[in-house]
């Protein structure tokens, strides 16, 4: 299914998945690492202890799984769609990143950062209005 002058339905679905899974994975990793705390010493025993806490964290494993799903979806969509379309369209993830940071990590987002995100979204809209070449090679 391909809308007139637009991307295939599967491309749109995977880009939406990419836009959600990458920020979610990064936020989960951040949340997991903040719960573990900063590494205070680089002594082998301290590093081993920190590594064991990382490997025991469910939040970190969810983050890794989300980023793996993102990577697989990203590879799939790049196999049939132009990079010059996929990369700008996936930049909409900046909105998701800011929202997840605000709601899940309790971060404050400055008005200037929101303005920057709005500019990025405007660029994504412009790129989305251009016809991508997501067809089979000639």
What can you tell me about this protein's structure?
The protein has one domain. The two termini are 19 Å apart. Helices cover 74% and strands 0% of the residues. It has helices at 9-36, 44-55, 58-80, 83-90, 93-104, 111-129.
Any key phrases for this structure?
138 residues, 0% strand
SS strand fraction: under 5%
Q: Mean pLDDT score, rounded?
A: 87
Number of helices: 6
Number of strands: 0
Helix content: over 70%
Main sheet specs: none
What gyration radius follows from the Cα positions, in whole Å? Answer: 18 Å
Structural domains: how many: 1
Alpha-carbon distance between the two ends: 19 Å
Report the uncertain regions.
Answer: 1-5
**Shape assignment:** globular
Helices and strands, in order, run as HHHHHH
| Structural class estimated from helices and strands | mainly alpha
């Amino acid at each position: 299914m391909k809308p007139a002058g637009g991307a295939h339905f599967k491309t749109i679905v995977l880009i939406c998945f990419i836009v959600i899974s990458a920020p979610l994975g990064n936020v989960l990793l951040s949340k997991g690492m903040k719960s573990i705390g900063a590494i205070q010493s680089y002594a082998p025993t301290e590093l081993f202890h920190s590594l064991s806490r990382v490997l025991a964290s469910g939040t970190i494993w969810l983050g890794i799984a989300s980023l793996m799903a993102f990577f697989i979806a990203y590879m799939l969509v790049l196999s049939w769609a132009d990079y010059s379309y996929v990369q700008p369209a996936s930049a909409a993830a900046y909105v998701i990143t800011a929202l997840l940071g605000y709601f899940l990590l309790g971060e404050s987002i400055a008005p200037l950062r929101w303005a920057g995100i709005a500019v990025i979204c405007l660029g994504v809209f412009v790129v989305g209005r251009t016809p991508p070449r997501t067809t089979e090679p000639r």
